[in-house]
Write a structure and sequence with these properties.
The complex is a heterodimer.
Chain A (H helix, E strand, L loop, with lengths): L8 E6 H5 L7 H7 L4 H20 L5 H10 L6 H16 L5 H12 L2 E10 H11 L3 E5 L1 E4 L2 E6 L10 H11 L7 E4 L5 H6 L2 E5 L3 H10 L3 E2 L2
Parallel strand pairs in A: 1-2, 1-6, 2-3, 6-7, 7-8
Antiparallel strand pairs in A: 4-5
Helix pairs in contact in A: 2-3, 3-4, 5-7
Chain B lengths: L17 H5 L3 E5 L4 H13 L5 E6 L7 H11 L4 H7 L3 H8 E5 L11 H7 L5 E4 L10 H21 L4 E5 L10 E3 L16 H13 L4 H15 L4 H14 L5 E6 L1 E3 L16 H9 L4 E3 L8 E3 H16 L6 E4 L9 H16 L6 H5 L7 E3 L9 H17 L2 H4 L2 H45 L2 E3 L2 H9 L2 H7 L8 H16 L1 H4 L17 E2 L11 E2 L3
Helix pairs in contact in B: 2-12, 7-8, 7-10, 13-20, 15-17
The chains are: A alpha/beta, B alpha/beta.
């Protein structure tokens, strides 16, 4: 019987919290504040503020609502503006906030032959340059739905950052030929719990209190920087 | 030879190799001191040095001879930079082998060439490429008539006086006039843009009569504008260029017309971003960079920009097709049909370009923190909104009147006037001066916007470009790499942010701000063209004609 090639191993990194420190200005607020016209900047900022409030308020059954609400204010924004603001935000808030501990974990994963997969709840226009900078193999991020060059304000499914189901991760692994049992996952937020549960070698990095409790319950390693 | 069939499509032929077709050809070109002509000639000599000879027809202008003028262009213009980089000190010899400068003027019969010169050119010329033209939107009709209408006729006469030369005429897409919509690549002499039939010869005569009127330019402009409007042309520029097309179409010559849209910064040749003069986007961008934030434009109207090297490559490919008798009569070198951009998107991309520019250290703190966050928005030109220019003008005039009528000595108590009267009077005078200045500036901006209004507000044109795209498909791979159509592959965001805006900022804005445009440094030793002697035996004693 011929040898079957080993399925690839991957290391899933949730960008927010594991690789990048939280920015002083959330991306949805930055985008909304830099809309073309002044009035929408102010009126639509409410959505981003409400989403931030809900996120900080604690557990929410459906975190998709938070993400949808946060990015809703971009409705009507041009694709050109999204690209330019994404680039600005990356250079101003993402690149200066890279966490050395996260970069070390990423380097280790690469050294040990894992495919590096980044998961981000920011828009692709913000984190695509990060994928290139970190030489990651794959990036899963939120994508704004566009209609004739303008944002509809709706995020395309699946929404990254919301609780990623084990089922979704397994489907992704099958599609990419990944062996989840031999893969790693790094998360920092409670929402990453299901992702971490579905992976053979989970690890939490500077976790929030709910994820820390989960990690202790499951005896997952905790990296604290 | 009868008039050209101006609606026939080219029959599909064998693959077209531009280099093979142009090798050994003799051409005469006009307008090489202009933006497009300069790039075309430089690129032709750079990419097709196997062309036999190019006669450059130019006026001497402020120089002792036309050859001096051309030498100055070749030595200092950035358009010739690639040639200078390739040939270095050998450029003079390279040009002398291929270029002969003829002192001439398109506004004169037979372009001002002596009969013996015409006789010398007659057997050898394969094509006349006519780029010369006046591109101001509101010029003196006298000048526009001489250059755009008479000039085209004289160039056609010159082509007709040769044994077999065809004419490639550079026009503009905007001869389509004020009738918008889909503009076909066709030319029907005697049919005006508003679909009115008119007699071309009578119209040319009528314009000649206006041009000959003595006295005030304004009266000539008004009369020419009236005639233009009656036929559906929005300004004197498009009127004279349109008339020229119709005039040429009736001549017994082999004619191919290229119609570029709004020609702007180069994508690749001579290098990314190069531009010359004040074209259409420069003044609009200048306005967008001013504090003026409500731009009278229709967001959904197409804004058809084409890089100058796309025009240059297209013109050479069309010339090759014409030399093989396989060209369509009209080629629109435009993008609105196959790779469109709207005025709304153009304004957005301009905003974003300005935003990026003002984020750099060269901007003041006020510009970085405030101005870059205030984007310009398109507004209906006919809607009297709070920041409409006529209203701003009225505000300025009104406040100025109020200030003028304010007698501080009468209003203030004597003790207060004694204390602060003098400084207040000074401030009042300064404010009056600034308001007067603002009033005049608003007027200037309004006049500028009125010139551009047909192109950004009133008419939506979509220029068909099927002919150049079909031609591109016929090119051999090698020809397509050098002369293929660039218009369809342009990423407009990248073009505006990284090519057009930086290019205009460097090559156009200084002129709009009253400054100078940088030239390339002089060569050492200065470039000298050596005119070949009339026969080979005398070539050793060729005479220096430059400097």
């Amino acid at each position: 019987m011929p040898d079957r090639p080993n399925p690839a191993r991957a290391a899933f990194f949730r960008v927010e919290g594991t690789l990048v420190r939280p920015a002083s200005m959330p991306a949805p607020a930055y985008f909304t504040l830099n809309a073309q016209q002044v009035t929408p900047r102010l009126t639509r900022l409410g959505g981003a503020a409400l989403a931030t409030g809900l996120k900080l308020a604690g557990p929410l059954k459906d975190q998709q609502v938070v993400h949808r609400l946060a990015w809703m204010g971009l409705r009507g924004m041009s694709e050109d503006r999204l690209a330019v603001l994404g680039d600005e935000y990356y250079h101003r808030y993402v690149l200066p906030n890279l966490k050395p501990v996260g970069l070390e974990l990423l380097e280790d994963a690469r050294r040990t032959g894992h495919r590096v997969v980044l998961l981000s709840d920011d828009l692709d226009v913000v984190v695509a340059p990060l994928k290139a900078y970190l030489k990651a193999d794959e990036l899963l991020s939120n994508v704004m739905e566009m209609d004739r060059g303008e944002a509809t304000g709706r995020l395309r499914d699946p929404i990254i950052g919301a609780t990623l189901s084990g089922q979704w991760v397994r489907a992704f692994a099958t599609d990419r030929g990944l062996d989840l049992a031999r893969s790693r996952a790094y998360g920092a937020h409670h929402a990453d719990g299901l992702l971490l549960s579905a992976i053979g070698q989970p690890c939490v990095v500077d976790p929030d209190w709910r994820l820390r409790r989960l990690a202790k319950d499951h005896d997952w390693p905790i990296v604290q920087s | 030879m009868g008039p050209t069939n101006l609606h026939a499509l080219p029959s599909p032929g064998a693959p077209l190799d531009v280099a093979t077709t142009l090798t050994g050809r003799t051409l005469l070109v006009t307008g090489v001191t202009g933006f497009v002509g300069k790039v075309w000639l430089s690129q032709l000599l750079h990419d097709l040095p196997s062309v036999a000879k190019v006669y450059v027809l130019a006026r001497a202008g402020d120089h002792p001879t036309a050859a001096d003028r051309f030498a100055r262009v070749a030595e200092r213009s950035p358009a010739f930079r690639p040639l200078r980089e390739r040939h270095g000190r050998g450029l003079g010899a390279f040009l002398a082998e291929r270029v002969e400068v003829l002192d001439g003027d398109v506004s004169q019969p037979l372009c001002g060439l002596a009969p013996d010169t015409v006789a010398r050119l007659a057997p050898e010329l394969d094509a006349v490429v006519h780029f010369a033209g006046l591109t101001d939107f509101a010029p003196d009709p006298r000048l526009a008539f001489d250059v755009n209408v008479l000039g085209a006729g004289h160039v056609a006469d010159l082509a007709a006086a040769t044994e077999h030369a065809l004419l490639l005429h550079c026009s503009t897409c905007f001869v389509a006039g004020t009738t918008g919509g889909h503009v076909a690549e066709a030319l029907t002499p005697g049919l005006a843009p508003n679909q009115r039939a008119y007699d071309v010869a009578s119209e040319v005569a009528a314009l000649a009569e206006i041009a000959a009127r003595p006295g005030d330019k304004k009266a000539r402009v008004a009369a020419a504008m009236e005639r233009a409007a009656a036929l559906g042309w929005p300004n004197i520029y498009t009127y004279t260029k349109g008339l020229a097309e119709h005039l040429l179409a009736l001549r017994p010559i082999e004619l191919t017309v290229i119609r570029p849209a709004i020609v702007e910064c180069a994508l690749r040749y001579p290098f990314s971003g190069w531009n010359e003069g004040i074209n259409t986007t420069g003044p609009l961008l200048w306005l967008l960079r001013s504090p003026f934030r409500h731009f009278p434009a229709r967001a959904d109207v197409h804004y058809d920009v084409v890089p100058v090297d796309a025009v240059s490559r297209g013109a050479t490919a069309v010339l090759a097709a014409a030399l093989r008798d396989e060209a369509a009569p009209v080629y629109q070198l435009a993008t609105s049909h196959s790779n469109p951009v709207t005025v709304g998107r153009a304004i957005e991309l301009a905003n974003l370009s300005i935003r990026k520019d003002l984020a750099t250290q060269k901007a003041s703190r006020f510009q970085r923190l405030v101005v870059r966050h205030l984007d310009t928005v398109p507004v209906d030109a006919d809607h009297e909104h709070a920041f409409a220019l006529p209203r701003l003008q009225r505000y300025a005039k009104g406040i100025q009147g109020l200030l003028g009528g304010l007698d501080l000595q009468a209003v203030l108590p004597p003790s207060a006037y004694k204390l602060v009267g003098k400084p207040l009077e000074r401030h009042k005078d300064t404010a009056g001066f600034l308001l007067e200045h603002a009033h005049r500036s608003f007027g200037r901006v309004q006049r500028m916007l009125d010139l551009f209004r047909p192109f950004i507000h009133d008419t939506d044109w979509i220029f068909a470009n099927d002919h150049v795209r079909a031609l591109d498909l016929r090119l051999t791979d090698a020809s397509r790499a050098t002369f293929g159509w660039l218009g369809d592959g342009i990423d407009w965001r990248d073009y505006w942010l990284h090519v057009l805006y930086p290019g205009l900022d460097l090559w156009c804005m200084p002129r709009l701000d009253g400054g100078d445009i940088p030239e390339d440094p002089p060569m050492s030793p200065p470039l000298t063209l050596v005119r070949p002697a009339p026969d080979a035996a005398a070539s050793a004693s060729a005479q220096a004609v430059s400097r």
